[in-house]
Amino acid sequence: MKFLLESLLTAFVLVVLISGHVVNDTVAGHVIVEEPAKYLLQLSPDTQQWVTEEEKWEFIRDGKTFMDITDSQNLDSAMVLAQQPFPIRYPEHCVRQEQVQRLVGNLSKIYMRNNLVKLTSFHTRHYDSDHGRQSSRWVLEKLNDMIKEAGANGTVTAEAFVHPWPQSSTIVKIPGLTNNTVIISAHQDSMNKYLHKASEIAAPGADSGGSGTVTIMEVFRLLLKDKDVVNGLTQNTVEFHWYSAELAGLLGSRAIIRSYVKNGREVKALIHQDKVGSIQGTLEAKKNESIGVITDFTDLGLTNFIKKVIDTYCDIPWVETRCGFACSVHQVAKYWHYPAALVTESAVEHRNIHSGARDTIAHLSFDHMLQHAKMTLGLVYELAYTKFSDAPSERPPK
């Protein structure tokens, strides 16, 4: 009889587990069952919703964008109020053409391709998988190799930002004369959002995550060739960020940017690049190749300055476009009043239609990625040497 009761209890537990609930404990022979885990999503500036994990992934599969604010909803409001935004004046013109032109010819499509071949060789870069962990470790090792080869390991650092999930984010820091910080970023994760158990399904992520990752990696490689930059003679500190878990609700960037707000970091600009490798949709729409500059939920002054940078340093024009709430990392920075901008491969309606296992290198243009690298290199130089005013008279009254 005892054996029969134990067997029945075991069978019941299995049924509960299969049904999606988690067994927490047993008390006096009774099974205690927890409710399914829930997540708080910010779906718009004014809309939040608690959802189950399955409902969250349904949102992702349906193409809905959001910020997952589950881990910090009780603290965010006070931190947002503590951030006192004030207008930042960006340069009227680009003035670093000489320094940029010395390096821009050394930007290498071969380096970008080789790095992207390696990055897409991981079965997936899903943030909650061992493949994702391995890919972020490769990114960190590659950056440290660049620093060592340039002899810059005395001043420039590359470090992992560890999260509760397996995949780390990566932060490179090039100190300047002040702690005012300019951030260039991309996301390094990938996801096959159309299939169940996304952490196990192939997701090369060549364009979504990969193209931006290797583009800013190439710009970093070139910056290390400038001794003034490496030796900390720029006016501002420059950082490169590769975020984990963007595709699951901007989780990695939220963790990092929230820590910057908490520590009082002065971020003068964050420029994120997401999907920067495909021109297929643009050409099929019979439009001219261009760089997409996002205009919604971005900082107007920084966005306008990026247009000037593209006009100065790129061989193709820019086009204004919109992508909606929480479509990428810039939304996180804006949430805490850091000035942020987003640049992409084209007008959003013409972006790469390939996703999941089909998001491969075969669909990308490294010539187009080179234009994004030129823009990024010019942007870094212009803003790294910009003297931002911190005069109290420019801050709004409390």
Could you walk me through the main structural features you see in this protein, from its secondary elements to its overall organization?
Extracellular aminopeptidase that allows assimilation of proteinaceous substrates. By secondary structure, this protein is α/β, with parallel strands linked by helices. The chain folds into two domains: about 40-70, no CATH class; about 75-390, Aminopeptidase (3-Layer(aba) Sandwich), CATH 3.40.630. It has helices at about 1-20, 55-60, 75-80, 95-105, 110-120, 130-150, 205-225, 225-230, 250-260, 280-285, 300-315, 330-335, 365-385; strands spanning about 20-25, 30-35, 40-45, 45-50, 65-70, 155-160, 170-175, 180-185, 235-245, 265-275, 290-295, 320, 340-345. The strands form three sheets. An eight-stranded mixed sheet has the order 6-7-9-8-10-13-11-12, sandwiched between helices. A three-stranded antiparallel sheet has the order 4-3-5. The chain has a two-stranded antiparallel ribbon with strand order 1-2. Helix 5 crosses helix 7 and helix 11 crosses helix 13 (about 365-385). The N and C termini lie far apart (about 75 Å).
